[in-house]
Specification:
The strands form seven sheets. Strands 8-9-10-12-11-7-16 form a seven-stranded mixed beta sheet. Strands 19-23-24-22-21-20 form a six-stranded mixed beta sheet, with helices on one face. The protein has a five-stranded mixed beta sheet with strand order 13-5-6-15-14. A hairpin with a 5-residue loop joins strand 17 and strand 18. With 559 residues, it is α+β, with helices and mostly antiparallel strands.
């Protein structure tokens, strides 16, 4: 039996290969190495068992007496260890005769590209991987003394109906700035958090395994796409860092390791409390979600943007590869016929001159049952931004609206709606019997981000649903107390009352507990999906997966 395992640990990738075979006999290996002249007998005698086994990595080493079609040639293992060490990694081997062998390859996250937030502590810049960030919280200066208190010898933030342990990045890294001044100040002996600063307190809510805590930073600068480099040798023992990167301005920044910070902070587990928050404590503002967009043009002055998470691939193909069938254009793509959609045919935008030679770009979207691609001239850039969507200035079927991105007016096409306009026969929906209580099905949609709210509402209305909007969970509960709906769709991360608190409120209400509720999120996390179903959600889906969202909603309503 051979077992293969892989995991990420402390900024490194661990690859483990194990078997339950005959193992490696160190004495036999040493004897063969002496016979082949790779080492002297006195060296073999003084070697430890582990060093003898590692002789298998010597160039030219082989235990066979005669080379056959099945035997090794004495090359291979030395190539493996040379390449691993060239990447800054190591190879460890553990073996027992007649028991088996375990080989562990440890590789740094060299050239791994990750998304992260550029943050500052004591005027020093650090990168925190976005995968570890649950949400961003801003506590107003006049709320700090009432929101942050001492519990079980730890300082915690009252975040909705939970107590969140706090970690001060300045303090945990031992930076020069005093931990009891400025926006990163420490709580006083009286159990309150004191600050004379007029700036709000910036807290990153971090989720790691089953732990959740708040990381206090001086400022949040920007979202970055970074290339991870391994830590230099003299920094490897600093467990709060997992790597380094070079920023766009040429400066070097350390990448924070959440697991290391958690261990160094020695945070105690604080049981979540289900207490109601007093109404006179004010509000905590949760900052809007940052989205990554692909900016592109169409060989005209207009600029377009599509959420990067909707895109499967971006291809560049010669114009000569395009095949014309009647009034449609196709491309042979991965042994399939990909129909090409030109935006100018369906949106009120300028018509570019069609190229007869050269190449064009094609955006291949995710989550489409049919093979369709959007034609573009060139990809300009990717951009991380919080979108303020304007849905009134430039309106048309197939457009979400417009926004100012990178200092320019940018159109945001609704790719799925454009596909419906281009191929209505593919997207014709079969009418089902009415399963709702009164006429058209009424759906309550709770979503705080305007862009996502617009997208999801458009999906629902295009499918014939009546949509009632709420900007957070608290507003959704108020609506449910006053109106009748057939189903609820909840965002997970919302201000005032998030999706978790909202589903608890719905399931604990005798009148509402049987209501079908779908959670929608930007991240596809199977573990979180399972947790959501256990918490009481009927379904758990990605926000921008239109097809699955509507299919699951139809099933919920039928049940």
């Amino acid at each position: 039996t051979i077992e293969l395992k892989a995991c990420h640990q402390g900024g490194q990738v661990l690859l483990v290969v194990m078997d339950n075979g005959r193992g490696v006999d160190g004495k036999l290996v040493a004897r063969k190495a002496v016979e082949k002249g790779l080492i002297r007998q006195d060296q073999a005698n003084s070697m430890s068992e582990k060093d003898r086994v590692r002789l298998i990595f010597r160039p030219g080493f082989s235990t066979v007496d005669q080379i056959t079609d099945l035997s090794g040639r004495g090359v291979g293992m030395d190539v493996v260890i040379t390449n691993i060490e060239h990447l800054g990694g190591t190879v460890d081997i553990e073996t027992k005769v007649n028991k088996g062998t375990k080989i562990t390859l440890v590789l740094p996250l060299t050239l791994a590209i990750v998304s992260g937030l550029l943050i500052k502590a004591d005027d020093q810049s650090f990168i925190l991987p976005e995968v570890d960030i649950d949400e961003l919280v801003r506590v107003k200066p006049d709320e700090i003394k009432t929101r942050i208190n001492a519990v079980q010898d730890a300082y915690v933030l009252r975040l909705r109906d939970t107590l969140l342990p706090l970690v001060n990045l300045n303090k945990i890294l031992g930076l020069s700035k005093s931990a009891d001044s400025g926006p990163s100040s420490i709580a006083t002996d009286s159990g309150q958090y004191a600050t004379d600063n007029t700036k709000p307190l910036r807290i990153l809510v971090i989720k790691h395994d089953e732990s959740r805590f708040g990381l206090i930073v001086d400022s949040i600068e920007s979202a970055e796409e970074i290339v991870v480099k391994p830590l230099p040798r003299y920094l490897k023992k600093m467990r709060c860092f997992s790597g380094v990167c070079i920023l766009g301005n040429g400066k070097v920044s350390l990448i924070l390791d959440v697991a290391g910070i958690l261990k160094k902070a020695a945070i105690r587990n604080i049981e979540e409390t289900k207490e109601e928050m007093p109404s006179d404590l004010g509000e905590i503002t949760v900052e809007a979600e940052i989205q990554t967009f692909l900016l592109f043009d169409n060989n005209t002055p207009e600029r377009f943007a599509v959420p990067l998470e909707l895109i499967s691939r971006i291809e560049r193909v010669p114009v000569s590869k395009i095949e014309h069938i009647k009034d449609r254009q196709f491309l042979q793509y991965h042994d399939k016929k990909l129909r090409l959609i030109f935006l100018e045919d369906y949106l009120p935008v300028q018509k570019p001159e069609r190229l007869s030679e050269g190449s064009i770009g094609i955006i291949v979207p995710k989550q489409t049952k049919h093979h369709l691609g959007i034609v573009m001239n060139r990809a300009i850039n990717t951009l991380n931004a919080v979108v303020e969507l304007d849905t009134t200035t430039i309106m048309a079927p197939g457009l979400f609206g417009s926004a100012i991105l990178d200092g320019k007016i940018t159109l945001l096409p609704d790719m799925y709606r454009v596909f419906e306009l281009a191929a209505p026969e593919w997207y014709a929906t079969k009418k089902k019997g009415n399963t709702c209580s009164q006429g058209k099905c009424r759906i309550l949609l709770a979503e705080d981000t305007p862009f996502f709210r617009m997208v999801e509402k458009d999906y629902l209305t295009s499918a014939g649903y009546e949509v009632i909007l709420a900007e957070d969970g608290r507003k959704a509960i108020q609506i449910l107390e006053e109106e009748t709906v057939d189903a609820v769709i909840l965002d997970i991360v919302m201000p005032r009352m998030d999706g978790w608190a909202t589903i608890r409120a719905i399931r604990s209400d005798e009148k509402l507990k049987h209501l079908p509720v779908m959670a929608v999120t930007s991240l596809g996390d199977e573990g979180m999906a399972q947790k959501g179903l256990e918490a009481g959600f009927t379904e758990w889906e990605l926000k921008l997966d239109k097809t699955r969202l509507l299919e699951k909603l139809a099933v919920m309503l039928e049940d």
